[in-house]
Amino acid sequence: MLAALRLQIEWGADEALEDAPVCRVAVRIAQPMPEARMLAQDAPPSPFSIPTMAPVQRAVERAEHAAQAANSLDELQAALANFDGCNLAATATSLVFSDGNPESGLMLIGEGPGAEEDRAGRPFVGPAGLLLDRMLASIGIDRTHCLMTNLIAWRPPGNRNPTDNEVALCLPFLLRHIALVQPKRLVLFGAVASHALLGTKAGITRLRGRWTEVAVPGLEAPVRAMPMQHPLTLLRNSAAKRDAWSDMIALRRDLDDLK
Fold first, then answer.
1. What is the value of pTM for the model shown?
2. Cα separations (Å) of 132 from 76, 199, 221, 230?
3. Contact (Cβ atoms closer than 8 angstroms) between residue 171 and residue 111
4. For the residues 12-27, what does the mean pLDDT come to?
Protein backbone atom coordinates (compact mmCIF):
# COMPACT_ATOMS: atom_id res chain seq x y z
CA MET A 1 0.00 0.00 0.00
CA LEU A 2 2.79 2.45 0.85
CA ALA A 3 4.54 1.67 -2.41
CA ALA A 4 1.33 2.39 -4.31
CA LEU A 5 0.91 5.72 -2.53
CA ARG A 6 4.53 6.72 -3.25
CA LEU A 7 3.95 5.92 -6.92
CA GLN A 8 0.86 8.14 -6.96
CA ILE A 9 2.86 11.00 -5.47
CA GLU A 10 5.63 10.57 -8.05
CA TRP A 11 2.98 10.82 -10.75
CA GLY A 12 1.77 14.12 -9.26
CA ALA A 13 -1.44 12.83 -7.64
CA ASP A 14 -0.85 14.64 -4.36
CA GLU A 15 -4.42 15.81 -3.58
CA ALA A 16 -7.28 13.88 -2.01
CA LEU A 17 -10.67 13.94 -3.72
CA GLU A 18 -13.35 15.88 -1.85
CA ASP A 19 -17.04 15.14 -1.45
CA ALA A 20 -18.07 18.33 -3.31
CA PRO A 21 -16.63 20.17 -6.35
CA VAL A 22 -14.13 22.92 -5.58
CA CYS A 23 -14.26 26.33 -7.29
CA ARG A 24 -10.65 26.67 -8.43
CA VAL A 25 -11.02 30.43 -9.07
CA ALA A 26 -12.12 30.97 -5.48
CA VAL A 27 -9.34 28.70 -4.26
CA ARG A 28 -6.73 30.85 -6.02
CA ILE A 29 -8.19 34.07 -4.62
CA ALA A 30 -8.98 32.88 -1.10
CA GLN A 31 -5.44 32.29 0.10
CA PRO A 32 -4.78 31.23 3.70
CA MET A 33 -4.12 33.85 6.31
CA PRO A 34 -0.44 34.76 6.91
CA GLU A 35 -0.51 32.90 10.21
CA ALA A 36 -1.64 29.72 8.47
CA ARG A 37 1.14 30.03 5.89
CA MET A 38 3.72 30.50 8.65
CA LEU A 39 2.50 27.38 10.45
CA ALA A 40 2.64 25.42 7.22
CA GLN A 41 6.22 26.58 6.62
CA ASP A 42 7.31 25.57 10.12
CA ALA A 43 5.74 22.11 9.93
CA PRO A 44 7.86 19.29 8.46
CA PRO A 45 6.69 18.32 4.97
CA SER A 46 4.67 15.13 4.70
CA PRO A 47 3.64 13.64 1.36
CA PHE A 48 0.62 12.03 3.01
CA SER A 49 -0.77 15.08 4.82
CA ILE A 50 -4.38 16.06 4.00
CA PRO A 51 -5.64 19.66 4.47
CA THR A 52 -8.00 19.94 7.44
CA MET A 53 -9.94 22.93 6.04
CA ALA A 54 -10.74 23.94 2.44
CA PRO A 55 -9.46 27.38 1.34
CA VAL A 56 -13.01 28.63 0.72
CA GLN A 57 -14.02 27.65 4.25
CA ARG A 58 -11.03 29.54 5.63
CA ALA A 59 -12.04 32.58 3.57
CA VAL A 60 -15.61 32.38 4.91
CA GLU A 61 -14.26 32.31 8.47
CA ARG A 62 -12.14 35.36 7.69
CA ALA A 63 -15.24 37.10 6.35
CA GLU A 64 -17.19 36.25 9.50
CA HIS A 65 -14.38 37.53 11.72
CA ALA A 66 -14.01 40.77 9.74
CA ALA A 67 -17.75 41.39 9.73
CA GLN A 68 -18.24 40.74 13.44
CA ALA A 69 -15.35 43.07 14.29
CA ALA A 70 -17.19 46.01 12.69
CA ASN A 71 -19.10 48.11 15.20
CA SER A 72 -20.45 50.74 12.81
CA LEU A 73 -21.53 50.98 9.18
CA ASP A 74 -18.34 52.88 8.32
CA GLU A 75 -16.24 50.11 9.86
CA LEU A 76 -18.26 47.47 8.02
CA GLN A 77 -17.80 49.23 4.69
CA ALA A 78 -14.06 49.49 5.36
CA ALA A 79 -13.94 45.81 6.27
CA LEU A 80 -15.60 44.92 2.97
CA ALA A 81 -13.22 47.15 1.05
CA ASN A 82 -10.21 45.49 2.69
CA PHE A 83 -11.50 41.93 2.35
CA ASP A 84 -9.47 40.06 -0.29
CA GLY A 85 -11.18 36.68 -0.03
CA CYS A 86 -13.81 37.19 -2.76
CA ASN A 87 -12.69 37.08 -6.37
CA LEU A 88 -15.44 39.51 -7.44
CA ALA A 89 -13.55 42.43 -5.90
CA ALA A 90 -10.78 41.94 -8.46
CA THR A 91 -13.10 42.33 -11.46
CA ALA A 92 -15.57 44.98 -10.23
CA THR A 93 -15.11 48.72 -10.62
CA SER A 94 -16.70 49.70 -7.31
CA LEU A 95 -17.73 48.33 -3.98
CA VAL A 96 -21.50 48.84 -3.77
CA PHE A 97 -22.39 49.21 -0.11
CA SER A 98 -25.71 50.99 0.53
CA ASP A 99 -27.92 53.96 -0.18
CA GLY A 100 -30.68 55.64 1.80
CA ASN A 101 -31.50 56.09 5.47
CA PRO A 102 -30.09 53.52 7.94
CA GLU A 103 -32.49 54.75 10.65
CA SER A 104 -35.66 54.32 8.60
CA GLY A 105 -36.56 50.88 9.96
CA LEU A 106 -37.03 49.47 6.44
CA MET A 107 -34.17 47.65 4.68
CA LEU A 108 -34.37 46.60 1.02
CA ILE A 109 -31.95 43.87 -0.04
CA GLY A 110 -31.21 43.02 -3.66
CA GLU A 111 -29.07 40.32 -5.21
CA GLY A 112 -26.03 42.20 -6.52
CA PRO A 113 -24.93 45.26 -8.47
CA GLY A 114 -25.44 45.60 -12.22
CA ALA A 115 -23.32 47.63 -14.62
CA GLU A 116 -24.83 50.98 -13.64
CA GLU A 117 -24.51 50.27 -9.92
CA ASP A 118 -20.91 49.16 -10.45
CA ARG A 119 -20.07 52.47 -12.09
CA ALA A 120 -21.95 54.61 -9.55
CA GLY A 121 -21.01 52.64 -6.43
CA ARG A 122 -24.66 52.72 -5.25
CA PRO A 123 -27.39 50.05 -5.32
CA PHE A 124 -30.49 50.27 -7.51
CA VAL A 125 -29.52 53.14 -9.81
CA GLY A 126 -29.99 51.46 -13.21
CA PRO A 127 -33.29 50.81 -15.04
CA ALA A 128 -34.35 48.36 -12.33
CA GLY A 129 -33.58 50.99 -9.70
CA LEU A 130 -35.69 53.61 -11.50
CA LEU A 131 -38.58 51.17 -11.58
CA LEU A 132 -38.10 50.43 -7.89
CA ASP A 133 -38.18 54.17 -7.12
CA ARG A 134 -41.55 54.40 -8.90
CA MET A 135 -42.86 51.33 -7.09
CA LEU A 136 -41.87 52.78 -3.73
CA ALA A 137 -43.29 56.20 -4.61
CA SER A 138 -46.65 54.56 -5.32
CA ILE A 139 -46.90 53.67 -1.61
CA GLY A 140 -45.39 56.91 -0.33
CA ILE A 141 -41.79 55.79 0.17
CA ASP A 142 -38.56 57.26 -1.21
CA ARG A 143 -34.88 56.65 -0.49
CA THR A 144 -35.03 58.74 2.66
CA HIS A 145 -37.56 56.26 4.07
CA CYS A 146 -35.53 53.08 3.52
CA LEU A 147 -32.02 51.67 3.30
CA MET A 148 -30.99 49.83 0.11
CA THR A 149 -28.21 47.30 -0.15
CA ASN A 150 -27.33 43.99 -1.83
CA LEU A 151 -26.33 40.51 -0.76
CA ILE A 152 -23.33 40.66 -3.12
CA ALA A 153 -21.21 43.79 -2.73
CA TRP A 154 -19.42 43.57 -6.10
CA ARG A 155 -20.78 43.14 -9.61
CA PRO A 156 -20.34 39.59 -10.96
CA PRO A 157 -18.76 39.68 -14.45
CA GLY A 158 -21.39 39.89 -17.16
CA ASN A 159 -24.12 40.26 -14.53
CA ARG A 160 -24.10 36.50 -14.02
CA ASN A 161 -25.63 34.96 -10.93
CA PRO A 162 -23.21 34.70 -7.99
CA THR A 163 -21.81 31.29 -7.17
CA ASP A 164 -22.55 29.52 -3.89
CA ASN A 165 -19.01 30.35 -2.72
CA GLU A 166 -19.49 34.05 -3.48
CA VAL A 167 -22.78 34.07 -1.58
CA ALA A 168 -21.13 32.35 1.40
CA LEU A 169 -18.33 34.94 1.42
CA CYS A 170 -20.65 37.97 1.24
CA LEU A 171 -23.41 36.75 3.55
CA PRO A 172 -21.53 37.43 6.84
CA PHE A 173 -21.17 41.10 5.86
CA LEU A 174 -24.87 41.38 5.00
CA LEU A 175 -25.91 39.77 8.28
CA ARG A 176 -23.70 42.19 10.18
CA HIS A 177 -25.17 45.05 8.12
CA ILE A 178 -28.65 44.03 9.24
CA ALA A 179 -27.52 43.66 12.87
CA LEU A 180 -26.00 47.16 12.89
CA VAL A 181 -29.02 48.81 11.25
CA GLN A 182 -31.61 46.88 13.33
CA PRO A 183 -34.44 47.29 10.82
CA LYS A 184 -38.03 46.53 11.73
CA ARG A 185 -38.82 45.13 8.27
CA LEU A 186 -36.83 43.55 5.45
CA VAL A 187 -37.75 43.27 1.77
CA LEU A 188 -35.80 40.61 -0.12
CA PHE A 189 -35.71 41.20 -3.86
CA GLY A 190 -35.14 38.12 -5.99
CA ALA A 191 -34.39 34.46 -5.46
CA VAL A 192 -30.68 34.76 -4.59
CA ALA A 193 -31.18 37.14 -1.64
CA SER A 194 -34.28 35.26 -0.48
CA HIS A 195 -32.57 31.87 -0.58
CA ALA A 196 -29.49 33.14 1.27
CA LEU A 197 -31.40 34.75 4.14
CA LEU A 198 -34.31 32.32 4.42
CA GLY A 199 -32.30 29.13 3.96
CA THR A 200 -34.64 27.73 1.33
CA LYS A 201 -34.45 26.80 -2.33
CA ALA A 202 -38.15 27.40 -3.05
CA GLY A 203 -38.86 29.47 -6.14
CA ILE A 204 -39.40 33.18 -5.75
CA THR A 205 -42.91 32.89 -7.19
CA ARG A 206 -43.80 30.69 -4.22
CA LEU A 207 -41.96 32.84 -1.67
CA ARG A 208 -43.09 36.29 -2.79
CA GLY A 209 -45.75 38.18 -0.90
CA ARG A 210 -45.47 36.09 2.26
CA TRP A 211 -44.17 37.50 5.51
CA THR A 212 -41.62 35.35 7.28
CA GLU A 213 -38.93 35.85 9.91
CA VAL A 214 -35.16 35.99 9.57
CA ALA A 215 -32.92 35.21 12.54
CA VAL A 216 -29.87 37.48 12.48
CA PRO A 217 -26.83 37.06 14.77
CA GLY A 218 -26.56 40.07 17.03
CA LEU A 219 -30.30 40.81 17.14
CA GLU A 220 -32.44 39.77 20.08
CA ALA A 221 -35.43 38.82 17.92
CA PRO A 222 -35.94 37.70 14.31
CA VAL A 223 -36.75 40.36 11.72
CA ARG A 224 -40.00 40.22 9.75
CA ALA A 225 -39.20 39.89 6.04
CA MET A 226 -41.06 39.66 2.73
CA PRO A 227 -39.55 38.25 -0.49
CA MET A 228 -40.55 40.00 -3.72
CA GLN A 229 -39.79 39.70 -7.39
CA HIS A 230 -36.68 41.66 -8.32
CA PRO A 231 -37.46 44.86 -10.27
CA LEU A 232 -35.21 43.62 -13.06
CA THR A 233 -37.54 40.63 -13.46
CA LEU A 234 -40.49 42.99 -13.70
CA LEU A 235 -38.80 44.84 -16.57
CA ARG A 236 -38.58 41.53 -18.45
CA ASN A 237 -41.98 40.18 -17.43
CA SER A 238 -44.74 42.77 -17.30
CA ALA A 239 -47.28 40.14 -16.24
CA ALA A 240 -45.51 39.90 -12.87
CA LYS A 241 -46.17 43.57 -12.09
CA ARG A 242 -49.66 42.80 -10.80
CA ASP A 243 -48.21 40.55 -8.09
CA ALA A 244 -45.55 43.16 -7.34
CA TRP A 245 -48.25 45.79 -6.83
CA SER A 246 -50.06 43.43 -4.45
CA ASP A 247 -46.83 42.94 -2.50
CA MET A 248 -46.27 46.69 -2.29
CA ILE A 249 -49.75 47.20 -0.87
CA ALA A 250 -49.07 44.49 1.73
CA LEU A 251 -45.80 46.23 2.64
CA ARG A 252 -47.54 49.58 3.02
CA ARG A 253 -50.21 48.10 5.29
CA ASP A 254 -47.63 46.38 7.44
CA LEU A 255 -45.59 49.56 7.80
CA ASP A 256 -48.71 51.47 8.76
CA ASP A 257 -49.40 48.94 11.50
CA LEU A 258 -45.99 49.75 13.00
CA LYS A 259 -46.95 53.37 13.60
1. 0.79
2. 26, 25, 28, 9
3. no
4. 53
